[in-house]
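Structure request: Branched-chain amino acid transport system permease protein, Microbacterium thalassium.
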Amino acid sequence: MWTRYILLPVVAIVLLSIPFFQPRDVQTALTSAVAFAIAAIGLTILVGVGGQLSLAHGVFVAVGAYGYIVLAGEPGVEDRWGLGLPPVLAAIGGVALAALLGLIFSPVAARLKGLYLGMASLALIFISEYVFTYVTPLTGGLQGRSVQQFDLFGIPLSGSTPKLEILGANIDGIARLWFIAVIALFLAVWIGLRIVRGRPGQALQLVRDNPTAAAAIGVNVQHAKAEAFVVSSAYAGVGGVFVALYSQVLTPETFNIVFSINFLAMIIIGGLGSIGGAVFGGAFVALLAFTMNKLGGTPLLPFIDQTGLNGIPGGTFSTIVFGVIVVLILVFEPTGGAGIVRRIRSRRAKPSPVAPPQQSHDTDSRGAVPEKTR
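Returned structure:
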């Protein structure tokens, strides 16, 4: 237990110091990893703990992203919708809109389950693709839409102005956004653990395993399912706001069906029902394409070319790689990365076999001292 109190500050210090020794593109990739990890935590609460299959998690992420853009956008600019709200309120509003969509969809989740619920959620993707592409005042259509700079109490925390240097490092918008993303990730993990380990998580697990027994002991099954969808959607909304902020320009192509399916891959790779596994899976999937592109053209991965003209694009190859990983995990390790970690911990915690006490030559089988040795 004491290792957690040492490890946690060390991890926090390492993460917060990244802008001082890593280039801008790495900071952007890591910020995207944090955004995906936060959204994946929400999906693992819904699918891993609540047992409700959703194939449209990317839609809720998109609602958070576009919600921020519209609420923070300047009104009357190029026929785009915008309310001109302060960025903080716009970010909160984006999360609230994603949660509201989850609440609207929750009655469907209450009536359906399993594959039927998955197919119903899949319909959300098709509807959203049409809306994001053709409702130009909302998304800017295929041309995309620029993202309003985020600031807190007048201090710009995204974008590229004003220029700021600390200890010789350029702390520009992405670096400042990284600091906020790390804080948001720690909060998301803490809240997620409180939910999973607390009464709501226990009620969700019981609803998942035996709805009849859950109802018999007083759990409102429909209410529990609706809460899971709302919480999951809110997490997706937070991830969506960060996606918008680090992207700076959003296009509807970002939120296609592959984007949504990737979130399922994240929680499967990390381990269903594990908050730490969701963070690992989100970071793994987000950073795999970036790593592939970085290594593309080198002797290590000569067949990868970022342009796609002289080889396979890193993003495409990474999709193939984690597709294979998902299949291998489902076949050989259904509990994912979290299950592997738990097994290692249990082996370490397993007490070493105690050698049976050797019988003294000075005692008999009952422990009494033989007559001849007295």
